[in-house]
Amino acid sequence: MNPQAAQAIDLLIGARWIIPVEPHGVVLEDHAVAVANGVVVDLLPVADAAAKYAPRERIDLGAHALIPGLINAHTHSPMTLLRGLADDLPLMTWLQRHIWPVEAKVIGADFVRDGSELAIVEMLRGGTTTCNENYFFPDVFAAACRRMGFRAVAGLPVIEFASAWAATPDEYFERALAVHDELKGDALVACAFAPHAPYTVSDSSFERIRTLSDQLDIPVHLHLHETAQEVEDARSGHGARPFARMQGLGLVNDRLIAVHMTQLTDAEITACAEAGVSVVHCPESNLKLASGFCPAEKLRRAGVNVAIGTDGCASNNDLDMLGELRTAALLAKGVANDASAFDAAYALRAATLDGARALGLADRTGSIEPGKSADLAAVRLDVPETQPLYHPVSQLVYAASRRQVSDVWIAGRRRLADGVLCDVDVEAVLAKAGRWRERIAAIH
Amino acid sequence: MNPQAAQAIDLLIGARWIIPVEPHGVVLEDHAVAVANGVVVDLLPVADAAAKYAPRERIDLGAHALIPGLINAHTHSPMTLLRGLADDLPLMTWLQRHIWPVEAKVIGADFVRDGSELAIVEMLRGGTTTCNENYFFPDVFAAACRRMGFRAVAGLPVIEFASAWAATPDEYFERALAVHDELKGDALVACAFAPHAPYTVSDSSFERIRTLSDQLDIPVHLHLHETAQEVEDARSGHGARPFARMQGLGLVNDRLIAVHMTQLTDAEITACAEAGVSVVHCPESNLKLASGFCPAEKLRRAGVNVAIGTDGCASNNDLDMLGELRTAALLAKGVANDASAFDAAYALRAATLDGARALGLADRTGSIEPGKSADLAAVRLDVPETQPLYHPVSQLVYAASRRQVSDVWIAGRRRLADGVLCDVDVEAVLAKAGRWRERIAAIH
Description:
Chain A has 16 helices and 17 strands. Chain A is α/β, with parallel strands linked by helices. The interface between A and B is large, with 69 and 69 residues.
């Protein structure tokens, strides 16, 4: 073998198992991922890698599964600072008497910066490499992502109420477009419109969003049909179910990321499939707030793209995507009354590639394929909790804990190394969270 | 202060928070537990402890919550060796085509010893100090518990089929009574009858169990109303729902530990409350096998004692009681359509004190109270995933991972010290699990 024939690359990662997600259901044993310039260039047997590549850095993970970084398709990162502030309450009591009054007093650039940092720390430690964000001050969130090397879609909020971010609908749109322009071409952070919900956004704002999302070719990230009450109130108020109203406004299309969707008729499911709508299933939030059950398996069978999200930490109370995809897989079987529903391989795809599809990022992330960004997570499987091991995908979905995530790379940059975050002062992040705790406890 | 006035004790454990579970909902800050001869003798402010006690060993846990050890009220420990062997299958296909054929070839003392050791390793690492066991070779299981210092109720199996444990109903009873005699007075391992299920046990065996459980004053641990199919088959076969059949046989009483109970009429719920039946809710197993939804909140409101179990690892796929009580708390809200259902404090009690009640061990374990055994688990809460912290019980139930369990004591004996098992050769346990994996994969 002539070593000069070996191709120079940045990184070669070998693992006992690699689960690329695409092709579906495949588990590669004793393979390696070759990375150059942040991009996956090859996926090949470890035995062949030494001759073919001369990596600058070589990592042999041993008894780990290497998977695409997890994609949290719906969250409100700064709400991490409200984790466990108020539990065991119905959605509207929780929002109106606890969350909104506190948020009204604290939301600002500092809260968003400190909460986003804590959320990114938690997500990275749990193997999440991308999130779909929905909150105020998306510019501050985006800056945190760029600083910490985290991939995201920053939601550009639109709501008919004044906030610390914007006072009027016009100002929401002005600021949205400014953030969009600022992030244009960014390697890590993309944008989506994030109108809060049908019950807090007017038809005229939705019409502007429709026009702008067409022009800018960006997704629309919307809470939709979260509860039966929302649907019932809309019927009495607008005379139509919110989904029908969105259809009328031209928003039911392949750029729509519809979050929650616990109340769906068969006709609405068919319409989602035909229009190419992505649905984000947030099972733990829906259970905790007793919002209803998203028919995840029925959507899947109808051909709808289903992604998974944790929702914010105030209603979950974590950003644990491994836990969330397990809950999704378990709950779907109960709801469908079919133990073969939403199987392990499908649950993993929903939390990776189908999340990327929902966010319009499937050309860039969500699977381990040559040409895609090296967004990777390694999960250690040789601990008692995941032994013996018959099927790595089963172990990941039904037994592994996020604390078994050892390493994470985003765009080829190592963000977690053997359980330790890279280039992040975790103590400083926690100290800031502690100060917010004192301030928020005093006003709640 | 006269140091000679201090009382000699074995152990004093101080923690930022102690959650004794009894009284309900109480969180003690900066308190300590005093332990002598394996028993809790006092619970007092850290500031007062130094003057009052002269401990042989003193442990200051810092930012931890100290809770009663978790009680897994239904499991099949050796099935840990079948973790993830067959997933995403309906109950009867899973049992008849995968689990039972494999079990028929492997069940014996070696399988039960090695699987029990792996299960106990997993349970201890996750803060579980007691389990209610249901499997063959309860003598071998009991020996593993005694060797590893783990508390349990060993189920004495009764089933109408021959197995490696016993060939005939008579032999099942003979062996059951022999194990019961052998364990009489044991400090760690008690017994219960464990008839498999109404569809695998005859009336005459149930009658003998009823008589013997009266005489010996031990519980009866039974899978009951696990699926709609079970209830429907019984109606066509026996002409009665299984619960009614158990009522007719005199087994519906305060010694009955009824596991699963996903199919219940209001009258059956009332009957459970009146008779003092304990129900063990296994939410993840019920979801995974699409068995149905146990009406946990309705049972609680009716005054039924509800405990929580993981079921065996082959249908879960873990023995994670912190995860299971979270799923129980979340799912109960969804099923009851009430976000205030099964609140965090109640979920923690179901996984501790109410588990002890179900097992007939409430005088000995399940809460941190003077006079009870020092069965304790410490959960570290200063990691990013559980910060900021407003309410420790909320953090434990809705955010903490079992990997945050740092320390465990059973009867005052330290079993886990800062994440490391005491006096257990984990590598040897894993090596044996690895050998079973090879053998089982070859025959499956």
